Amino acid sequence: MPRGGPGAYVVKKPKNLGKTVRQVFSYMTNTWKKKILLVIVFFLVIIASGSTIAATYLLTPTINLGILPVVGEPLTFDNLKPFIYYVSIMALAYIMGLISTWVYNFIMINLSAETLYTIRQDLFSAMEDLPVSYFDTHTDGDIMSRFTNDTDTLREVLSMALPQIFSSSLTILGTFSMMLFLSWQLTLIVIVMLGIMFLVIRTIGARSAKNFQEQQRRLGIVNGYIEEMITGQKVVKVFNHEHKIMDQFDEINNNLRDASTRANIYGNILMPIMGNLSYVQFAFCAGIGGWLIIIDQMTIGAIASFLQYSRNFSQPITQVSQLINQILSGLAGAERIFTFIENPKEEDEGFVELVNVERQPDGSLVETIADSQLWAWKIPQEDGSVKYNEIKGDVRFNDVSFSYDGKREVIHDISLFAKPGQKIALVGATGAGKTTITNLLNRFYEIDEGEIIYDGVNIKDIKKKDLRKSLAMVLQDTHLFTGTIADNIRYGKLDATDDEIKGAAELAHATHFINQLPDGFDTVITNDGGNLSQGQRQLLAIARAAVANPPVLVLDEATSSIDTRTEKFIEKGMDSLMLDRTVFVIAHRLSTVRNSNAILVMDQGEIIERGDHDELMKEKGRYYQLQTGQLELD
User: Which of 176, 111, 189 is nearest to 309 (CA)?
Assistant: First the structure.
């Protein structure tokens, strides 16, 4: 039963129930150990349910043979032997049931934990294999829900709901059989009363569920409003809107109160009604059972057992109805998990690898496992031999066109070249296609037409991980991971030494602020570097790129969050970083691109101007207008 009261469970059903069930059980039975444990659980559930049913029936001989014969007689050990005997058997049955229940619950908790461990591993692995385009079309919250909500509901199903529904089903079957055995007349009364109870549950439960859904919707509105106001407190106070937002909150809070009141009215009256109906059923059974005793068709012990069975009969039926809903919701979550895992992986048909090489005296290249700081593309040949193309940073776009949705082109027939060691600047308004070009170079997306050649090799032939290893990017939106400053810089090169880390920080002019931190390079960063300024975070990203020491560097608004004074400080370091490297720079600050070898002015997916700063200023075109303030970058 979810939080919120009876009838509040919102049932989500899987679209393909059979397939989802098979997938869940494939995870639960993927080893012999798991299979054996499931068999043990199966038998333990039977023992637990059977013990409860048997213990209840033992009331009959206990009363008929152990109590009634000694009523009015002096109590001695001999005449109490039958009573002690049946009570001992009853206690033993309950103890067996208790132990069996504890053991199978213990097994199922461990089994479900191990199963969910494997599922989470596959989930995370699947996420890492997804193309970047997937994350463009799905929200972070939607992806996170697979790891949180969906796995939580599945855990409840595996650890509790499955054994409980099996146990409850056995209890229903066994209890009903024993009631028929004891008295078919009283069993008929129980069935009629259960029909009335189900009618009440269906009527009130439906209204309860509807109102609890409305309560959850209203609660989401309240939570969203509160979160928005928390993050926007400065704006609220600047414009003196405290009273206005308090009035708005009062309105939505009243709506939540009304919805909660209606929901809890229906939720809270259901159980008392059900409880009183069960008492009515008990009274009918007791009255008619007494009459059956009078006419000698039942014994006192039998009626005692039957009344106990009748009290226990409705509980597992209610449990089964709730568990079915819970299982369906859990399987719906599992289906979302498996759908995510089955998403098409990022395709990679590349066969060209990135390798370290050494130059021989005759000028030839030989592959080496040492970190030679000299890289080459290893290109297999048809005759089985291997060709090595030294990586110098020669990048060429030849008639490249691309669209994200297959309809509207964002890059149209682009041709550009970057010779080794050149600094190429991309300038243009937002949406002109600047960042798209760098994304295509990384093969985050596949081009529709044309080709991109990297040191004589079509990037489609290069393995993606090797291609991306040869590139380093400094993005406008810097992301720092939980860990030390050194760990975050080392992310660019996982085997970097401490000296390399410090050298990269020095190159990025980040050493000064790092040394002022409490633990220097060992300072732990949390919450995406929330305790650092945006400029400091970007300096660390530049250091991360520096330690990677790539032949090609992409700077996407890398200094956008750094003040002009800091920018002056890091210019020399950036120049050192860019030395002998091909660099693509995307910038809104035109001052940062003046020393570029070539400046490409883009507009609506096309290159409309190309040249260095002096050449473009002489042309007095778009770049000239931007520099002189006649136009602005938006």
Answer: 176
Return the structure tokens found at 181.
């055995």
Residues of the chain with pLDDT under 50: 1-10
Residue 252 DSSP class = H
Mind listing the pLDDT tens digit for each residue in 41-65? 999 999 999 998 999 899 889 888 8
C-alpha span between 599 and 584 (Å, rounded): 10
Which pLDDT does position 534 carry in this prediction? 77
Long-range pairs for 388-391 at CB < 8 Å and ≥24 separation?
A: 388/355, 388/357, 389/455, 389/456, 389/457, 390/357, 390/365, 390/455, 391/354, 391/455, 391/470, 391/551
Beta bridge partners, 218, equal none
Domain ranges of the chain: 17-183+298-341, 353-390, 395-627
Question: At 308, which amino acid appears?
Answer: Q
**Residues 35, 481: Cα–Cα separation, whole Å:** 40
Neighbour count for residue 564 (Cβ, 10 Å): 10
Q: Which of 435, 548, 576 lies closest to 491 in space, CA to CA?
A: 548
Tell me the CATH number of domain 17-183+298-341, given options 1.20.1560.10, 3.10.120.10, 3.30.2160.10, 3.40.50.150: 1.20.1560.10
Residue labelled with tokens 């990048």: 395
Could you confirm whether domain 395-627 is CATH 3.40.50.970?
Answer: no
- Residue 5: predicted pLDDT: 40
Six token digits for residue 291: 């009459």
Burial class of residue 568 in the structure, from the number of CB atoms within 10 Å of its CB (0-12 exposed, 13-18 middle, 19+ buried): exposed
395-627: same fold as 17-183+298-341?
Answer: no
Query: Looking at beta carbons, which pairs linking 306-309 to residues 24 or more positions away fall under 8 Å?
Result: 306/179, 306/182, 306/183, 306/186, 307/282, 308/56, 308/59, 309/56, 309/175, 309/178, 309/179, 309/182
Instruction: Collapse the DSSP code of 454 into the 3-class scheme (helix H, G, I; strand E, B; otherwise coil) and give the result.
Output: strand
